[in-house]
Each structure stands twice: as C-alpha cells, then as structure tokens.
Write a structure and sequence with these properties.
With about 290 residues, the chain is of the alpha/beta class. The chain has 2 domains: about 150 residues, 3-Layer(aba) Sandwich (Rossmann fold); about 130 residues, Hypothetical Protein Tm841, Chain: A,domain 3, CATH 3.30.1180.10. About 40% of the residues lie in helices and about 25% in strands. The strands form 3 sheets. It has a 6-stranded mixed sheet with strand order 10-9-8-13-11-12, sandwiched between helices. A 4-stranded parallel sheet has the order 2-1-6-7, with helices on both faces. Strands 4-3-5 form a 3-stranded antiparallel sheet, covered by helices on one side. Strand 9 and strand 10 form a beta hairpin. Helix 3 crosses helix 4, helix 5 packs antiparallel against helix 6 and helix 9 runs parallel beside helix 10. The protein starts with a strand and ends in a 5-residue tail after the last strand. The relative contact order is 0.16.
Length: about 290
C-alpha cells in the first residue's frame, strides 16, 4: 500500500511551523494589489497588507492555479505518494474544482496513484482544524479511507464564526447592501457571521458594539465546550491585524478551558473580503446551524 500525504490550500491559515513540521503540501491562492499578484513565491507581510487596505487599496483575489496544482501533485505522485487534499469551501472559491480536475487528470496519467479531494465546506483555520485532525489520525495509524470517513461524517461540526469591524468590505464583496452598511455603521451594528453547512457565509445575528460582538464569539464556544472537550484540544482565534483584541480573547479562553488556543492572522486572500479588524473563532462544536 502506498503512503499518502495530506495537502490543503493557503486559505487554511495554518501556522507555518505546523505546516513544516507535518510536511503539509500547500496549494496557494492569490491576491492582486495594483496589478501585482501575490500568493506564491511573492507575498506581503499580513500587517503590511492590511495597512494597505486601511490606506484605501482594494485587492482582488484569485483561486489556485491549475498548472501549480499539476506540478505540485505530479511531484508528490512521482515520489510515491497518494494525496488527500482538504479544500477551501467550494461555495466560496473555484479552488476546490481546480484541484479536483487537476487530480483526476494526474490519476489518468498515473493510474497507480490515488488523489482524493474533500470539500471541507469551511474557511480559514476552521478548514485548518480539519487538516490538523487528519494529521492526528494519520499519526495514530488511521488509513486513508478511515480519515476520509471520519471527516465526511464530522466536517460540519467544525465551526467558523467571526465579526467584522467595517461593514463596507462586506458590501464591496457583494454580501451586504450599501444601505445596510451605511445604517449599520451609523448605529454601530456588528454582524456575527458563520460558515453554514453549504460552506457559504451567512449572518447569524447582529449586536451593537465591538466589545459585545467579541464577547458573543467567546460565549458561543464556551456554551458547547463541555460537550466537545475531547475534540477541542486546539482552537483558533484568527484576525485581520487585530492582535490586542485577539490575544485578550485567547487569554480568557485559556483561563476558562483546557484548550491550546492559537492566535493567527487571516491570510490576505480571505482578508481581502473581510477587511482589517475582522476577528473569528474556529472550533469543534455540536453543529453549525
């Protein structure tokens, strides 16, 4: 039986040390500012990227490059590996389709190999937590098929919730009307958003004020934590250059739970749509809806 590797894309927002330590193969997604494309060898420091957005730059994003997928996967296959790829939500990007098509083509050329693409129906470190679970299972001796079966059965229990600081970034991305953005900003309304079972971004509620929105994110996790301790050894606080508030949330969660709480920046290809100041929490819950 061939050994296999686990791959994902750059939107999974996993810490680089974890990627390196566990030999995770990363397929990049891309973003463009002023005609310069970033995301592969060329990248901006996330803080620099969000400062550019604060200064008025409006980035655009692109999914994975089919040729990069072919080159990356072909190298892995020729080294003797099968591939389990855990993808960013297909409802929000064409990246999952690109990887599926590329993987199928490589399997035709190399019939001895197996490439399976699973849509996590998730984003950012919610997707990353699925990857971490697959790595944990592989290290424990689980087979390719056992990992696939567990993920398909449980992936909709990986929760990603977040709040944005500036409603106009959601408007620009087509997820909020201009009128709603204007009125919401005037009265200091903060939407709470989640990734639903279809892998789409949906509003689950609104609160007034930044502090209340962050408290709501923390409490949403604390409510379900007692039932899911075994699957929440690690959780994420993710942010678009809001380090102080994120660390304060993490400190509270470390005090109230036994979790390892990782604070990590949201990648520019996701942050382009959410905007500076966005903060989210990613964990294993009872359900998304």
């Amino acid at each position: 039986m061939r050994d296999f590797i686990i791959s994902t894309d750059s939107n999974s927002d996993l810490p680089q040390k974890y990627i390196d330590d566990n030999n995770i193969v990363i397929i990049p997604h891309y973003y463009d500012i002023d005609g310069v494309v970033y995301g592969d060898e060329l990248n901006l420091d996330p803080k620099e990227f969000y400062d550019l957005m604060r200064g008025g730059k409006m980035p655009t994003t692109m999914a994975s490059n089919p040729q990069v997928i072919r080159d990356t996967f072909t190298k892995c296959v020729e080294e003797g590996y099968d591939i389990l790829h855990l993808s960013f939500s297909s409802a929000l990007s064409g990246g999952c389709s690109n990887v599926t098509v590329g993987g199928a083509e490589i399997c035709e050329e190399h019939p001895e190999c197996r490439i399976t693409v699973l849509d996590t129906a998730n984003v950012s470190s919610g997707q990353g937590l699925v990857v971490m679970k697959a790595v944990e299972m592989k290290k424990a001796g689980a087979s390719f098929d056992e990992i696939i079966s567990w993920i398909e059965e449980n992936k909709l229990r990986f929760v990603t919730q977040f709040t944005v600081d500036d409603l106009f970034h959601l408007h620009r991305g087509g997820r909020l009307s201009k009128a709603t953005a204007i009125i919401g900003s005037i009265v200091n309304i903060k939407p709470l958003l989640s990734v639903n079972n279809e892998g789409k971004l949906v509003s689950i509620s609104t609160v007034r004020g930044r502090k209340r929105s962050l408290n709501t994110l923390v409490n949403s996790f604390l409510e379900v934590y007692p039932d899911n301790k075994d699957n929440n050894k690690t959780i994420f606080i993710v942010h678009c250059d809001a380090p102080i508030e994120s660390e304060n949330m993490a400190k509270e969660l470390r005090e109230k739970t036994d979790c390892e709480v990782i604070v990590n920046m949201i990648s520019p290809s996701i942050g382009s749509h959410a905007g500076p100041g966005t903060i989210g929490i990613c964990y294993f819950g009872n359900s998304r809806e």
